[in-house]
Hints:
8 helices
Amino acid sequence: xxKIKEKKHKFICSNPTxxxxxxxxxxxxxxxxxxxxxxxxxxLLKVQSRRVEERETGAVIVANLANNKAFVTSLLExxxxxxxxxxLIDKHxxxxxxxxxxxxxLAACGDYTVSEALVDQDVMTSLVMLFEQ
Length: 133
């Protein structure tokens, strides 16, 4: 009677899965603007890779980041559309779908500079070849 059990202390794990949270990613982006350059380089390498999965992943990443104006501007400076437009006629369907989605999101979320870049960087040749297939 009158005895009290001692409470066991739980260790509070700040990140049990090991995956960074959205808040951490945003803070990292704010504190380290060079991370955007590293992201751009890695995406360009993925899109130009020989592996099918990496090409698809690179196009999907760009499709998801298409509403980030600074990222899109840096992509256009690197002639990204000229790099990704041949993926429209890739022999793998998943890569073609990802490339088309990527270009669609860039055109839909971007301003007139994206439309001009689509014409200047000759996306129409690959698009016509896709329609002919």
